[in-house]
Design a protein that fits this description.
It is built from 2 helices and no strands. The chain is an all-alpha fold. The chain has 2 domains: 46 residues; 41 residues. The relative contact order is 0.04.
């Protein structure tokens, strides 16, 4: 009773081979989908999150500097307007 018939060994081998083939097919399909998604994203000219965050930080700093300079110009203009003309 401990000996299995060769038929069951053959079926187990076929089932194992089928599972291996399906696993290989799944990996190949995942690689294909990943490549297709990356190709589509490249075609759409999208940026990565890290690049976006760096540019957003640069824009935030530029805006803060622009606001500071605008306030400084306004203060200088007010000071110049309050002085009597020297002429």
């Amino acid at each position: 009773m401990t000996d299995r018939p060769k038929f069951f060994d053959d079926i187990a081998g076929v089932a194992g081979g089928a599972l291996s083939a399906l696993n290989g097919l799944r990996e190949e399909l995942a690689a294909l989908v990943k490549a297709r998604v990356e190709e589509t994203l490249t075609r759409l000219d999208l940026v990565r999150r890290e690049e976006f965050e760096v540019v957003a930080e640069l824009a935030r700093r530029a805006r803060a500097e622009s606001e500071a300079l605008a306030a400084r110009v306004a203060a200088l203009e007010a000071a110049a307007a309050s002085k009597p003309d020297a002429g």
